[in-house]
Amino acid sequence: MSEAPLIVADELQCLFTVRRGPVEFIRGKASRIHAVDTVSFTLERAEILALVGESGCGKSTVGRMLVKMEEPTAGALTFAGETVNALSGARLKEFRRRAQMIFQNPFEAFDPRLTIGTSLQQAMQIHNIGKDQHDRLQRIVTVMERSGLTPAEDFLSRYPHELSGGQSQRIATVRVMLLSPEFVVADEPVSMLDVSVRADILNQLLDLRDELDMGIVFITHDLAVARYIADRIAVMYLGMFVEVGPAEEILANPRHPYSQALLSNTLPAGDEDRITEPMPIGGEVPTPVDIQPGCRFANRCPFAFDRCFKETPILQAHGGKTEVACHLLG
Amino acid sequence: MSESLLELRNVSIRYRTGRGHVSAVEDVSLQVPTGASIGLVGESGSGKSTLALALMRLLPQNAEVTGEMIFAGENLVTKTESQLSKGWRWRKLAMVFQKSLAAMSPVHRIGQQMEDVLTIHEPHLTKPEREQRLHDVLTSVRLPNRVLRAYPFELSGGMMQRSMIALGLLCNPPFLIFDEATTALDVITQTQILKEIERLKAEYNLTTIVISHDVGVINAVTDTVAVLYAGQLMEVAPRETFFSNPQHPYSQALISSVPRLRGEKTRLAGIPGSLPDLTNPPQGCRFAPRCPHATEGCLAVTPPLVEVAPGHLVRCTDIPLREVVA
Ligand SMILES: Nc1ncnc2c1ncn2[C@@H]1O[C@H](COP(=O)(O)OP(=O)(O)OP(=O)(O)O)[C@@H](O)[C@H]1O
Ligand SMILES: Nc1ncnc2c1ncn2[C@@H]1O[C@H](COP(=O)(O)OP(=O)(O)O)[C@@H](O)[C@H]1O
Ligand code: SF4
Ligand code: SF4
Ligand SMILES: [Mg+2]
Ligand SMILES: [Mg+2]
To answer: Could you state, in order of their start, the residue ranges of all structural domains in chain B?
Structure first.
């Protein structure tokens, strides 16, 4: 029997009820925001899946559900064959070590009142890693120096506010390594960093995957970054996956109009030409309140036709490994 | 070639701190012709915002500027605050800030804040004239008039960024600095804003300095690229040359740190090490501690900025050597 996949997300849904927001104010009733609506996918060990899409499309919410920082409104999540929804007690604590999250804003990751050394030691202690204080310190120093944070002692006595963005993000990655998780969600971990630091962090994550067989869900709005790090890409729009498949396949031949818009609007980073003329799509991601049937991209899609406003397209394969949710493909 | 609207002559900027003097910008000389668009790139902490704030004369109290910044024939460095606030800042030079949310008051409506700027800088305008101006500038960045009644937190990132550009354009300045104006926006909004910038440049013959660590942005909207490292200009090159044939080892490292959408996928090289401590910068070439081509000679003297081709300046002693090799 083959090993269970690392992650199985089965129709995950996350609705937020807006109590006193502007929407309720206008409509005079409570509204529901469909932050994530029936997202399903499988992630194997040592696999990296990139979630891409505009801000507000639900990427972070998916990420938070995967590490149980947010409870799904509906749907099931399985981690290494075990149902996550009902975990509690020791099993939950074990899950909290095995599944980690790296944040966009590295400053959020550490308690501002503790030195970096204390924070890292505490994290290890909570999960019973290392024999004693001395052993833990030893491991911290080794991992930090391997990550280019030298001399490590220099950083251990610092407080989070005494670090640059790049240094904090490197240390957040160090913490992940110390806990040796099997699964990591990295939520835009490099979008605020310099290109040089960004390259280092991406390489660090790739090395972790190779050394620990770690599975990673990597959230980004940069398709070139997604291509560099991921095996597969899932393009999200308004809470749904609209296209999922091997990274190279999606970049070479994006089939969903929204994927096409994203790719054609990505600026070339060198002397190469643009892939195609940027596809103009108007407006911004609307807030997914009180969703009606039909394609959620229809009001911005240049190819929308009658059916798109009536019937919600379902994610399906049309030959090849990529799945697309669009009526244009039949 | 048209005349320079702005010329920096040996500009150095230091911050006095408890740990000593931070040498944030060191001996920068640069010509900015009328209508040009200069891209300023370099790692975080390399002095880009410091230079921009110096031009706006908005540096904090602990900063010291030496050298000359000649703008339309006048030296900005020696202008008094009262001269600057009457008819210079926002009228002749304006800036779109890196932290756009921080630049606007969260408790006042956007329209009110814009009107205040106009009242201060163009007191001769009547109320209807002010309203007309607000309407015009919003139209030029494609924002609906309702934005005027909104508070900053009610706008999306893209709309907020457009509002900031509108604020920059409010007094029709001939010169505008964009400091990371599209960083952290998604690609679709970014493309829209960059298109606006291009259009405004063509329409008003704007001269711009665009600061970004996103080389894609630099590639899209500039004609000349200036590379700043640890406060020193390392390379100034026409945009095409910068991307196709960068000469300085730091420029080469920057470009090869960026993942690409196409082509072979190879491991990104990155740039090992980090910026030097600017309270005690290394002798000689400031990039030497991280440079793969460094020799002892590089540590001895600061290499001069040499013109290797028309409009292409490089600060590196190793350049002739590598040309012979190539
Ligand atoms: N008010 C200040 N007091 C002391 N040092 C400062 C001050 N402001 C900036 N610096 C220092 O000056 C150097 C240049 O900073 P600057 O903000 O200009 O960098 P930057 O290139 O704009 O970076 P980023 O890409 O992060 O915006 C850094 O070493 C920074 O720590
Ligand atoms: N706690 C919350 N309450 C209400 N709405 C939320 C909450 N968290 C997220 N949302 C909404 O859900 C949608 C998706 O948000 P998010 O997952 O943060 O997107 P992304 O990470 O792609 O920027 C957005 O419309 C956002 O405003
Ligand atoms: S289903 Fe229709 S509206 Fe949706 S992406 Fe396809 S063509 Fe566009
Ligand atoms: S001068 Fe020397 S250290 Fe500096 S960039 Fe050139 S080769 Fe490298
Ligand atoms: Mg997010
Ligand atoms: Mg800056």
So the answer is: 4-92+173-245
